[in-house]
Amino acid sequence: QVQLVESGGGSVQPGGSLRLSCAASGRTDDIYFMGWTRQAPGQERTFVARGWSTGSTHFVDAVRGRFQIFFNNDKKTVELQMNMLKPEDTAVYYCNAGPFGFGTTRPGPHWGQGTQVTVSA
Hints:
- This protein is mainly beta and 121 residues long.
- The protein is built from no helices and 11 strands.
- Strands 2, 4, 5, 6, 9, 10 and 11 form a 7-stranded mixed sheet that branches. Strands 1-3-8-7 form a 4-stranded antiparallel sheet, with no helix packed on it.
- A hairpin with a 4-residue loop joins strand 7 and strand 8.
- The radius of gyration is 13 Å and the shape is globular.
- It starts with a strand and ends with a strand.
């Protein structure tokens, strides 16, 4: 079994920055990518960003250029640096991990518990 534990998140004004962290433990042998999805109130969970063990990364268009992702495959940790935050970034952010290769945003089987990010004046 794999456990994903998240930290970070919180409240920030528009234009501010936050950093999310996630660490995997347990049977992590099948983890080839780690990344983040988010779910705003009343909406479906959607892909945000992902990093693969090859060093490749992928971002949803809405955050590209503002967010950075750092995946350490040796330690099985991932961090999401969020800059120039907007109110529309407000959501619960979930760490997600799994075995799928580059080019897919299909959710992996492993999930964190979620952490709230709120962007408001």
